[in-house]
Amino acid sequence: MKRRILFTVLAVVLVAALASPLLAGKRKHPNKLKYPPIEITSPEVIDISLGNGMEGFMIEDHEVPVVDIVILFPTYFPEEGKYGLNEMAQWVIRNGGSESWPSDRLNEELEFLAASVEIYGGNLSTSVAINCLKKDLDAVLAIAADLIMNPVFPEDKIDNKRGEMLEEIRRKNDQPRAIARREFYKLVYKGHPYGWDTTVGSVEAITRDDLTSFHAAYFHPNRAIIGVSGDVTKDEITGKLEKVFEGWEPVETTIPEVPAVEPAFNQNWNYAYKDISQAYMMLGHFSINSKNEDRCALQVMNFILGGGSFTSWIVTEVREKKGLAYSSGSRFGTDAFTLGAFYAYAQTKGEEYSRAMQIMVEQIE
After folding, report:
1. How far apart are CA 304 and CA 54, in angstroms?
2. Are strands 46-49 and 125-133 parallel, antiparallel or unpaired?
3. Which percentage of the chain shows pLDDT scores above 90?
């Protein structure tokens, strides 16, 4: 009996709580809300430079004995007939090792030290990311520097990566959302490297000489930008970097400018068939360059239009009110080199795509 009475009392309290105005969704109008002033304390950023031309910045953080370093190398697109070269080169530099640090020994040593050295990027940059305990910094820096300066590009690793990329191409039409996005960018950036994609022919055309040429063209200290954060001082880290990169000479190179795009807005409809019951739609056009003074206003605009999750107009109209889509929204992308792309999207039943698209157009208008 006591248990039943106690349960009843708790139930009454719970019902009362659920009926409260706050949980029922009654909130103050935004112009009634008051917030304390925002106080932001930026950490001190320290410029660093090495004798070989490498430059960058660092932030000291002595809270934990860990150091993070990123070294970025500007790169450029390969020729279209060998598209995928940059991806392969980045992977093989890391996973192929060097003469002093063959792949297996390299991975075992980093695992033993609970450290990481990763190499990644896209067509326009390659980054080397280093993370380790401060006590192991000398050893891990030496490994990373050797990889950066002396990769060996073994043929077996090249074949491994080639096989992986060919398998990705074989399966690239498995996901309808990926098809829509890929074909949308091909149409928007028609003829521009941003619209290129790997093919069986382009991957199979890549040779070991292409990979070594990639390294020789872009991996130079005077082109590198370095960022350091962690439990080190400026004198400590510059001394260690000078030591591991001793003998690495600067080379004068020129990286081409990313081609400009012409913001054409000629309306057209395009269709890719896949035997499924759903329709995946994307509609849009060019957006802006990252330096455009309206960038922040446009990000706020897109948050209202379709980027603000369940509060945005497209999601509210297409998904919540009409029940036409599980996934919908919009994205307003910017680009640091040329023009980005704007698009609205939705996933809906095949027979409902026209209605859903019309609603998206109405919200954009």
Report:
1. 43
2. unpaired
3. 79
